[in-house]
Design a protein that fits this description.
By secondary structure, the protein is mostly beta strands. The chain has one domain. It has 1 helix and 13 strands, in the order βββββββββαββββ. Strands 1, 2, 3, 5, 6, 7, 8 and 13 form an 8-stranded antiparallel sheet that branches. Strands 4-9-12-11-10 form a 5-stranded antiparallel sheet. The two termini are 12 Å apart.
């Protein structure tokens, strides 16, 4: 079996609009409506990647390991026009984020799985992922999860501004000083809850065991 080369891990938001929610006009296109925004790097010295709500007691750790290092968190940004009743206003949304592992094109995307997940058991239209009640997800070094998640908890629950660093657009970054590992959060949407799947791209000359 050829070795797997992972290029990125991505999380996409797929949900219907709620009643009364502003309608976004505009989509990914060639006229400058779409762009990619890069944010602070994620440090993963252990190579163990967790994609989870940052306040989860136990994170959703992916089985596939990544090379230890720092990786860019990138977001797809859609700029358009929102409409609520008779009012119209500029709106931006981030329908997907990714942790960029290799800056090369991917030819296909596959589900990024944790240890207990088997895609053969899924019903049509279903996917594995993490749940959140706070409209927040994160990429983090799973080896330092307890420390990193604890800092996020102090940031939100105790208003401890020194526990995390604000990196803009509602995102925060927590760092484990002892190991250099970090956690970088991202927003999952306006509804405040849901389940979000993660995916990894597969190069043309590689195969996976799932």
């Amino acid at each position: 079996m050829a070795p797997v080369e992972t290029h990125a891990y991505g999380v996409a938001r797929r949900r219907p609009l709620s009643a009364g929610e502003p309608l976004l006009r505009g989509a990914l296109g060639r006229d400058g409506d779409s762009r990619a925004a890069a944010h602070r790097h994620g440090a993963h010295p252990s190579g163990r990647l967790a994609v989870s709500d940052p306040l989860d007691e136990k994170p959703r750790e992916l089985t596939e390991r990544i090379p230890p290092g720092e990786y860019a968190l990138e977001a797809a940004v859609i700029a358009g026009e929102g409409e609520y009743g008779e009012d119209r206003f500029p709106v931006t949304e981030e329908p997907a984020v990714r942790l960029l592992i290799r800056d090369e094109p991917a030819v296909a995307w596959e589900s990024a799985l944790s240890e207990s997940e088997d895609p053969r058991l899924l019903l049509d239209g279903h996917a594995y992922g993490f749940s959140t009640d706070a409209a927040t997800g994160s990429f983090a070094d799973a080896a330092a999860w307890e420390t990193l998640s604890g800092k996020v908890g102090r940031h939100y629950e105790e208003q401890d501004d020194g526990a995390c660093e604000s990196i803009g657009n509602g995102r925060i970054r927590a760092v484990d000083v002892a190991t250099g590992s970090d956690l970088v959060s991202f927003c999952t949407g306006a509804t405040g809850h849901g389940r979000y799947g993660s995916a990894a791209p597969a190069p043309a000359n590689s195969s996976r065991s799932w």
